[in-house]
Amino acid sequence: MSAAAARIAGIDIGSSTTKLVLLTEAEPTHAIADSGPEPLRTAQDMVAQHAPDVVWATGYGRHLARSSFADGVVTEIKAAAVGARALHPDSQTIIDIGGQDSKVIALDEGGRAIHFEMNDRCAAGTGKFLEVMAGRLGFDLETFGRRANESTQAVPVNSTCTVFAESEVISLLARGEPSDRIARGLHISIAERIVAMVLRAGGPRAEVVFCGGVAHNPCLRALLAERLGVEIRVPRHPQLVVATGAALIAREAVVAAASPGS
Q1: Region of poorest pLDDT, from 75-84, 156-165, 226-235, 247-256
Q2: Which residues have CB under 8 Å from 144's CB, separation 6+?
Q3: Inter-CA distances, 146 with 43, 135, 166, 183, 232, Å
Q4: Cα–Cα dist 77/97, whole Å
Q5: 1-88+239-262 and 91-234 share one CATH topology?
Q6: Residue 122 — very low, low, confident or very high, per pLDDT cuts 50/70/90?
Q7: Can you give the residue ranges of the ATPase BadF/BadG/BcrA/BcrD type domain (predicted)?
């Protein structure tokens, strides 16, 4: 199969959403859907709709995909590194905040992952945490980030555990604290947690890329830039970075298989 003519896909099967990036001779196309209660079925339907010749999977559901339809699998760390470098060639620090985990990946000058920090043991500092806190304050996610960003004052929230933070927010509301100030306090607590992960990973190195669905949040972007003292690069579709990396890795595999002597 010619790599140039092949329809090659990368699919990122996450806990909250499933993302597919399709590489063809024309412009890349993509699809995003809620993973739902049956993420494998969601991924299968997405692949069937786009009919790639080759598909590599990443994310939480990659091993299920391997036994079902995937031609190969790759870790989220490697896929994120490849995807980020393709979109921002000078990137050496990746902040990836998804629905259920947060990752910070340090790359060397050649783009290889040399260190990473991951929070995947609880929802603290993840998209799920933001979703729960927004709902408790009566905001949708977009309004939550915007109101927190516009607020000039913050009410400190001491816990980043979802259960304890929710209880703390309830108490603050009962005390009459404004919702937008609580929202900013919640964002500050997340930013401080992520900054600590960046520092453990060696500090911000060269260009910093923020990916994952949470990168759409304007308050978190601003807080991270302020506390790290660097400009934060956010790709046009930050939630597609990992799927893009998987697709590029799949294409490399097709090229290698087609090479003489392979």
Answers
A1: 156-165
A2: 130, 133, 134, 137, 183, 217
A3: 32, 14, 20, 10, 18
A4: 12
A5: yes
A6: low
A7: 10-250
Q: Residue 9 phi/psi, 5° resolution?
A: -125, 150
Q: What is the CATH number of domain 1-88+239-262?
A: 3.30.420.40
Tokens describing residue 109? 């000058």
Reply yes or no on whether the pLDDT at 226 is more than 90. Answer: yes
Please give the CATH superfamily to which domain 91-234 belongs: ATPase, nucleotide binding domain (3.30.420.40)
Asked if residue 227 has pLDDT above 90, the reply is yes
Strand pairing class (8-13; 54-59): parallel
Interatomic CA distance for residues 172 and 177, integer angstroms:
6
Q: Minimal CA–CA distance to 132: which of 101, 169, 97?
A: 169
Average pLDDT over all residues of the chain = 93
What's the CA gap between 11 and 20, in Å, rounded? 4
Instruction: Say which amino acid occupies 116.
Output: F
Q: Phi/psi at 248 (nearest 5 deg)?
A: -65, -40
Beta strand pairing call for 232-233 and 8-13:
unpaired
Region 121-129: what's the mean pLDDT? 77
Average pLDDT rounded to a whole number, residues 76-99? 96
* Residue 257 pLDDT greater than 70, yes or no: yes
